[in-house]
Amino acid sequence: MKMTFRWYGDADPVKLEYIRQIPGMYGIVSAVYDVPVGDVWPVANIMALKQKIEAQGLKFEVIESVPVHEDIKLGKPGREQLVANYAQTLKNLAQCGLKVVCYNFMPVFDWTRTTLEKKLEDGSSTLAFEVETVNQIDPAQGIQLPGWDASYKPEALKALLAEYNAIGEEQLWKNLAWFLERVIPVAEQAGIKMAIHPDDPPRPIFGLPRIVKNRQDLERLLAIVDSPANGLTLCSGSLGADCHNDIAAMVREFAGRGRIHFAHMRNVRNNEAGDFYETSHRSADGSLDMAEIMRAYFDAGFEGYVRPDHGRMIWGETGKPGYGLYDRALGAVYLNGLWEGIAKEAAATQGSAQ
Ligand code: DNO
């Protein structure tokens, strides 16, 4: 297991110099942010980023994310050029020594929350999602949710939603298959592992199709191209927002088959209705048994990348919601501690069996 930390580049208030001080930190997860979605990432930009990271004694082997253009998700004309560009980006990344590429296939908007500042009892604040709030929104009137309102003009958003509503889930699957059939052979040849991130939250939203939500979806996705290069970012918090998803069982199954390349570790407090909020990483604070999930990775012989996913805002820190330094650093140390405990226990058991 290799512990990593997401870094948003020079604009990130969390400095690489701070990240390297977190005990047990292996590397950085980042992206080239100044190239428009759909264009090729030039080798020079990737190399510049890599050098900055390596100068701090950290490795740079994971990209999060190379975004997939909406026209590919929608299966529109022009997707041929876009997928060729995507493939070229993968080759360039491989040339620079990158190993894993995280991406997602969520229509319109990546993750969705109804608030970014839910106050917890201890005075910290966190990201939360309430089903009722979303149900009350009429997308035709615009979507006043964090991220959505700033990203699209109401008319453009309306048109995009209509396009997706028209294609539905099965067509979205077909468009994903079209993408994977072209990109995975290139990744395989270049030595890159693709790792899809599940839908967050794992449910349809505003009538938009969502297709990476549970064990069955993951199974279907992996079967589209049966190659280790067609793999997963197993995000405990995204999938765990649905209380019917058994994360440890998914880890045992898919890591056991060598198809999880990147583990996002986040804890959430969920309920039957589908509401959730993000907690500290500690098992006792949320609904997910993080120790059990780490044990599942350990038992599967997982050697991939892990990162503490979102953290709460604590100790007066401000900045990008979910991506402060403090709580994520605590998360990394906690996860490393669990791993060390599990590894020592396993070694002791083995020793006593001999
Ligand atoms: C949220 C992240 C996601 C993730 C993308 C991957 O904080 O986990 O934005 O990076 O879905 O493509």
Task: Write up this protein.
The protein is an alpha/beta fold. It has one domain: TIM Barrel (Alpha-Beta Barrel), CATH 3.20.20.150. The chain has 12 helices and 12 strands. α2 links the parallel β2 and β3. α4 packs across α7. The relative contact order is 0.13. The structure holds D-mannose. It catalyses: D-mannonate = 2-dehydro-3-deoxy-D-gluconate + H2O. Its cofactor is Fe(2+); Mn(2+). One of its GO terms (biological process) is D-glucuronate catabolic process.
Entry summary:
The protein is an alpha/beta fold and about 350 residues long.
Q: Tell me the name of the CATH class.
A: Alpha Beta
Content-based structural category: alpha/beta
Helix content range of the residues, please? 40-55%
C-alpha geometry: globular
Number of domains: 1
Number of strands: 12
Ligands, ions, cofactors: D-mannose
CATH topology title: TIM Barrel
Average pLDDT works out at: 96
CATH superfamily: Divalent-metal-dependent TIM barrel enzymes
Q: Kindly report the oligomeric state of this protein.
A: single chain
Largest sheet: 8 strands, parallel, barrel
Order of helix and strand elements from N to C terminus? EHEHEHHEEEHHHEHEHHEEEHEH
N- to C-terminal distance: 26 Å
- Largest sheet strand order: 1-2-3-4-7-8-9-12
Low-confidence stretches: none
Number of helices: 12
In the CATH hierarchy, the architecture is Alpha-Beta Barrel
> What gyration radius follows from the Cα positions, in whole Å?
20 Å
What is the strand content? 15-25%
